[in-house]
Amino acid sequence: MEAARHEVDERSPLLNADHGSEGMPVELLQENRSHWRSIRVMYLTMFLSSLGFSIVVSSIWPFLQKVDKTADATFLGWVIAVYSLGQMIASILFGAWSNYRPRREPLIISILINVAANILYGYAHAPPSHNKYYMLLARALVGFGAGNVAVVRSYVAGATSLQERNSAMANISACQALGFILGPALQTAMTSIGQTGVSWKVIDLELNMYTAPAFLGAFLGIVNIIFIIAVFREHHVNELNGAKCINGNIQGSSEMLENSDGDIDLVAVVTCNILFFVILFAFAIFETIATPLTMDMYAWTGKQAVLYNGLLLVGVGVESIVVFMTTKILSKRFEDRLLLLEGFVIIFVGFFILLPWGNQYPQIQWTDIKNGSNYSSADIMYGESSIVAWDFLLRSSHSVDAVGCPVQQEWCQHIPIIHLAQYIISVILIGVGYPVCNVMSYTLYSKVLGPVPQGIYMGWLTASGSGARTLGPAFVGQVYPRYGPRWTFGPLCGMVMAATILVVLMYKRLIGFSVRSLTLQR
After folding, report:
1. How many folded domains does the chain comprise?
2. Same domain, yes or no, for 345 and 375?
3. Looking at the whole model, is its pTM more than 0.85?
């Protein structure tokens, strides 16, 4: 009976549980439908998690200035970084929690934290003083709530068979990408409310273009909790013997689950964490550097850079969704590790193209000297904090006349420009390589771990990604204003190449747990 049940699950397409249901017992059919409804709830949770991050990110700086005039670019850096720090800590905690308790618990608690954080963000104007610290706390709690990503991925990994996992992981990543795309779009739509908006003095509520997205995020979080309570049920598929666990009760032998932890290839596990760190580190640098790079290279104003790069990032998001869906098809014909290797090669080529060449140089931004800027060359080249450079860029981007590469960045006078065609081709290639590596790293990692509870392990993987998203912007802030694009993209190319070589060296070990177990038995 258990073998038949496993066979039915493997034959059921990911998003079509009704297919192949003819002749299936009623209780088995209901169980199969519950199985896929629960996975779809995890898709929704991932989508809303990424939407909650991106829906306010483009308005954090003007809202911070509005609620607290003492906030500067240094504090903005903390407000942005604290999200990833919160997620890095929480992903490990929630992952461990999900290993020993029903996953519904950490999911609901994390979303409640997220709801409270969004409400706190919307009321950041209310306290009489120190408002910027309330915004900092709100973003830290939003990041902490986003630690449930580890729970979502560990559940989907355990609730799908090997045949289903590539497709399920691709769908999760596509939902995440869709959230990142729609978030800024919803923020833009809410600008029609205006900076003043409407207010209710009784409850001290101000609903404007800055707070409305946060309150919407809180509402969607409540909707998510309702779906988890009403629809979500825990299921587990043992990839080795077909045993299934429903709501924490294992049907079939659990001996493999109890004794398999020692059989995990820890070298492959560590390798996957390193590779995932490199993937997220590279993409974080790409996201961070886009606006200042294009302002320096093409003499775009801040408004132009935000608009054009926003359109490019939306294009990358759409491209990523297409790549996610294509990866689902390719993974049925090619090995996961081969696709991962190809993804790294594409990312390397994408960043290698960004290395400057030729004899055309950026337009120099002389207006800051004329306007009596207080920043000296030493401030940019040897400042102790990278935020000094970003503060300069932010001030420059708000100046009407300040276009081009700031003269304080001495490299502007001897480093050639990155041609616009180079930049666009690079964006396209990174938009292909990143989603392939993202999906394959998660999928391969879950297969390497096998049937053991994956909460803690997925927490470590998510934490490595959060660490990369924290260190990536810091790296850009330290290196780019001082040394320019060559020393920014050169070491990054070296890092991606090293990761590619690591995949080649570890190629034989990057295999699924069940495949490795069968090999050892032989």
Report:
1. 2
2. no
3. no
